[in-house]
């Protein structure tokens, strides 16, 4: 396993479209595959303890991808007891290094109060960090935060902006039509002037925060 390699996985938005990265969006077996795919020498044996030791070593050496994987292991209790506090610790270390999937996970944990005290402002902080890296899931959730006024002042215009950016960055996914409907529902709350301003800002943000190409 190369601790230096980033984990490249797309977090899909759940069909409920509620909180796009609630823990249910990743099935436990999916996260097991993520972990084992990064330690190919033990895939055949299914030796989670050995795999965890390898990942932990990379995490302790400061590799963000391994810190993220270790956070997944603790958050799901894969091969060990579930521990949200340790998960938050490792996601936090990776998030501070700019690891966008860790930023999303940490944002979710602050939203739900999992392993950390619930803090919607901190949740928004981390979702924004990932959104500004072009992560369309984080962009969608940030839109939700503005629509609901969670951790930020309620602002339908900014909700529309972030929903629009997410839709634009998510154009190839099958659920994009549903996302567009959510954006359009918010648009109905805006005046024509507000909508025009929001569309201009969304266009600017789309150029600033495009989804990274694989």
From TrEMBL:
Keywords: Signal. The keyword Calcium does not apply. InterPro entries: Mitotic_Regulator, Sel1-like, TPR-like_helical_dom_sf. Gene3D superfamilies: Tetratricopeptide repeat domain. Residues 1-20 form the signal peptide. It comes from Aeromonas veronii. Pfam families: Sel1. This is Sel1 repeat family protein.
């Amino acid at each position: 396993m190369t601790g230096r390699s980033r984990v490249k996985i797309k977090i899909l938005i759940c069909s409920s479209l509620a909180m796009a990265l609630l823990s249910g969006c990743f099935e436990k077996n999916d996260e097991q595959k993520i972990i084992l795919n990064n330690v190919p020498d033990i895939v055949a044996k299914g030796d989670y303890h050995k795999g965890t030791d390898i990942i932990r070593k990379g995490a302790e050496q400061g590799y963000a991808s391994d810190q993220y994987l270790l956070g997944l292991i603790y958050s799901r209790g894969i091969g060990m007891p579930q521990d949200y506090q340790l998960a938050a610790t490792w996601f936090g270390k990776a998030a501070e290094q700019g690891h966008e999937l860790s930023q999303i996970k940490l944002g979710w944990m602050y939203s739900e109060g999992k392993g950390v005290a619930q803090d919607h402002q901190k949740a928004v902080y981390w979702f924004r960090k990932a959104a500004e890296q072009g992560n369309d899931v984080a962009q969608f959730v940030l839109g939700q935060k503005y629509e609901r006024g969670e951790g930020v002042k309620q602002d339908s215009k900014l909700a529309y902006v972030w929903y629009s950016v997410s839709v634009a960055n998510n154009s190839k996914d099958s659920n994009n039509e549903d996302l567009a409907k959510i954006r359009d529902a918010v648009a109905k709350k805006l005046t024509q002037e507000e909508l025009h301003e929001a569309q201009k800002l969304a266009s600017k943000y789309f150029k600033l925060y495009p989804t990274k190409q694989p």
